[in-house]
Design a protein that fits this description.
The protein has about 375 residues and is an alpha/beta fold. It has a domain at about 1-130 and about 320-380: 3-Layer(aba) Sandwich (Rossmann fold), CATH 3.40.50. It is about 40% helix and about 25% strand. The protein is built from 10 helices and 15 strands. The chain has a 6-stranded antiparallel β-sheet. A 6-stranded mixed β-sheet has the order 8-12-13-3-14-15, with helices on both faces. The radius of gyration is 22 Å and the shape is globular. Bound molecules: adenosine-5'-triphosphate and magnesium ion. Magnesium ion binds near residues 47, 48 and 326.
Length: about 375
């Protein structure tokens, strides 16, 4: 079988993957060499787990948003110091890098995620400086029907691909938000201290809102220009701070936000802000909100957004991100499936696809490498 190897400089790709004590994998070694890697296997074989492992090569809690402890292989959990680890050699825009992510457990029972880059321990948030990883999972099928928090996370991951500093900024904002809530719960403390904290919170909050607006404008340009089998999506942010930025300079919004925070102290600190914002998505051809579209149409909208984001990220980074598409093919009709395969190949980044039905991926033929997953192992075919 002829396999399209990842030889172009404009692609992020996992070239070597090692797992230990990760979910159902005791230890796993996989060295893919293709642009498209297809994972097939029965329900419960370990396909999603493998994608989750790759998602830990980026900041955050991985594609399941799991607790670190739940990722540890059950059989290893009895050993109080055992942790899980993902190690990979990934081709990035500047050549191959060694990345790692692991759970370290101290004897006192606290869990910590460690990230490594070329042998050095680094903060997990810095992984997005090196490579991009994006995913679509079956859980995200409910994205337009759920409350705003998962859409906000989805939005912030989109922004992260275009602005690697976004994760650090969101983290800073959320820390000051929590710190302020605690201070207010405990009686408020020193007003000068509280004001300083609110000023910091306003600064990071406005930076978060501004980055979201900028990324969305870039994405919308690509979405509007896209042609093909996926619907045109219209994205907008519903958020007070984001909308203030429509007609006021950032410095002014910052002082207004700080004033709003000071005013809301007496209401137990309940304050509006970027932690309440929502992402709205419309199917433009049908002129309908995504939530009112069919399941398949919602999936197609998500794919359209993800493809546009991957293109935007490829432009910015000079390398298309790694895409993890868990069970995406099964939800599409054959025409859209072929269109997705064509888009993925054209993007140039490495894509991992999964499914129980190998036949769905036959159109990829020699352009994909097939991996059979099962019994705690994953083996390249051929
Ligand atoms: N911490 C853990 N330790 C051991 N096994 C685990 C752990 N967490 C999950 N598993 C098991 O890993 C197995 C594989 O799960 P995974 O979700 O990867 O399957 P899958 O191949 O994606 O299946 P499906 O086709 O149903 O989506 C499951 O049987 C699950 O119970
Ligand atoms: Mg699965």
């Amino acid at each position: 079988m002829q396999v399209g190897t990842v030889g172009i400089a404009t692609a992020c790709a996992v070239q070597r993957l090692r797992l230990s004590n990760f979910r159902n994998y005791d230890s796993l070694a996989l060295d893919p060499a293709a642009q498209v890697v297809v994972l097939t296997g029965a329900n419960g074989a370990g396909k999603t787990n493998l994608m989750e492992a790759i998602s830990f090569l980026s900041p955050g809690r991985g594609l399941r948003r799991a607790r670190l402890r739940d990722v540890l292989r059950k059989e290893a959990a009895a050993d109080e110091t055992a942790g899980w680890a993902v190690a990979a050699t990934v081709r990035g825009p500047d050549g191959p890098v060694k990345l790692g992510s692991s759970l370290s457990r101290t004897e006192r029972g606290t869990d910590k995620r460690l990230a490594r880059l070329d042998g050095q321990t680094v903060p997990p948030s810095s992984l997005s400086q090196v490579i991009g990883v994006q995913w679509l999972t079956p859980q995200m099928d409910r994205l337009f029907l759920e409350g705003p928090s998962s859409r906000r996370r989805f939005l912030d991951r989109l922004v992260l691909g275009l602005d690697p500093d976004h994760g650090r900024r969101v983290g800073a904002y959320e820390r000051s938000l929590r710190e302020r809530a605690k201070l207010l719960r405990d009686g408020g403390g020193d007003p000068a201290w509280l004001s300083a904290l609110e000023a910091r919170m306003a600064a990071s909050g406005v930076a978060v809102a501004a980055a979201r607006r900028e990324a969305l404008a870039r994405l919308q340009r690509l979405l509007s220009a896209a042609t093909g089998h996926f619907p045109k999506a219209g994205l907008a942010i519903e958020g007070r701070i984001e909308s203030w930025l429509d007609d006021h300079p950032a410095v002014e919004v910052e002082s207004r936000f700080a004033a709003m925070l000071a005013d809301s102290r007496q209401h137990e600190g309940a304050a509006d802000g970027p932690h309440r914002s929502d992402l709205t998505v419309r199917h433009l051809d049908k002129d309908m909100p995504a939530a009112q579209c069919s399941t398949g149409e919602q999936k197609a909208l998500l794919i359209a957004v993800m493809l546009a984001n991957a293109k935007a990220e490829a432009e910015r980074r000079g390398a298309a991100p790694i895409l993890l598409l868990d069970e995406v093919a099964a939800h599409l009709d054959s025409e859209r499936r072929d269109a997705l395969f064509a888009e993925i190949l054209a993007l140039g980044g490495q894509a991992w696809l999964s499914g129980t039905d190998r036949n769905l991926f036959e159109p990829l033929g020699g352009q994909a490498q097939f991996v059979t997953v099962g019994r705690g192992q994953a083996n390249l075919e051929g």
